[in-house]
Amino acid sequence: MTGTLHPSERLAEILGKVRALGPTLRERALEAERAGRLSDETIADLDATGAFNIGSPAEFGGDELSVRQQLDVVSEVAKWDGSAAWTVWVGASTNWIPAGSGARVVEEVYGPEWVGPRVAASSHFPASRGRARRVEGGWTISGGPWTFGSDSLWAPFTNLGCIADDGEGPYLVGVQVPRDELRFLDDWHVAGMRGTGSVSSTLVRDALFVPDHRGVDFRDVTGQKLESGLKGSIWKAPSLGWSFSLMAGMSIGLAQGALDRFLERSAGRPLRGTTYKNQLEAPLTHLMLAEVHSRIQSATLMTQANADESDRLGELAAAGTPADPEYLQNFSARVLVETAYAAKWCAEAIELLQRNSGSTAIMESEPIQRAWRDARVITLHGALNLEALSENYGRLMAGTQPHKFDGITTLDRFAPAPLKKNDQAR
Hints:
This protein is α+β, with helices and mostly antiparallel strands.
């Protein structure tokens, strides 16, 4: 942590630096889109604000801000550039993966000096192409490619999802692989979030030996079963509450940034087809702005509540009094569906702003069209299938268990253990 600043003071310092960098992020956004990745200069500039340090452990000099505080940082970056926010979101919200992989992985990831995100992960929804096989002293991994590797271009390690089978059925293994053992593919040609460089990767060789401590049964990671040596309550917070509250923060920041940009560009602009010489004086603009505000505000309040609850649950668990499994299951399912709704509402708000911005808003240089595309990409994330998430949460509300499925967002790991026959008879 920087000096002896209180976390709230450190948050204010980081937010101030991000706001100062913001216009530069916006100016560089088009170049990053065309390149399919943020520049190394932008990564270094973001690092200098402290944005990549917000979720890193205090034991290794990290700021270890609360989930609620991290949410503010992600939202602020997103106001200026969605792709930059995506890299910050991934860098913060997936810290629970190395932290859940044991003390040796934690030391390897956070011990050395590093500029940029320290954490990346690929293909855990679930893994389908990577394979892990137990061998003496560790694992042999093969297969691939591993897709959607956000932050892999800059992180020292990428956690690859691999399927293993020791004879009792397949299971997911998270494997920490050093950056120099990966080859990155030029396959990130997408509609939005173009600057994230979320490319696929393959191994440099056909197969790679990985020492035992770097390959962890993902059930142990999600269940927080391994000792990390980290003491803060953030490491006991629900992983889905942490990750997806921050994900909603991207949508919120994109929408707020688009609103700010709309107000800036519409002042004094005539409204076609009317006698209004200033778009901001037209009643139809006022009605639209109120609707945009309501969508953003709804998403914001809901997301802030989820972030606060994630912090509270982490504090309870760290104190040795964790919430019961049924509550955790319901909370995790709720966070997922509410993040999907936040993404939907914010994307719809931006679309309203886009439609009321005139034909010049389709230009590549206009931030509103970029926010429009970036926000829609968030709604298409593999973990934000609104209908599926709605059904799962609705099932819980109705007293029925959700669908069982593998991957990071599985919900049945929180379900109460079934009663034994002797217990049922009592």
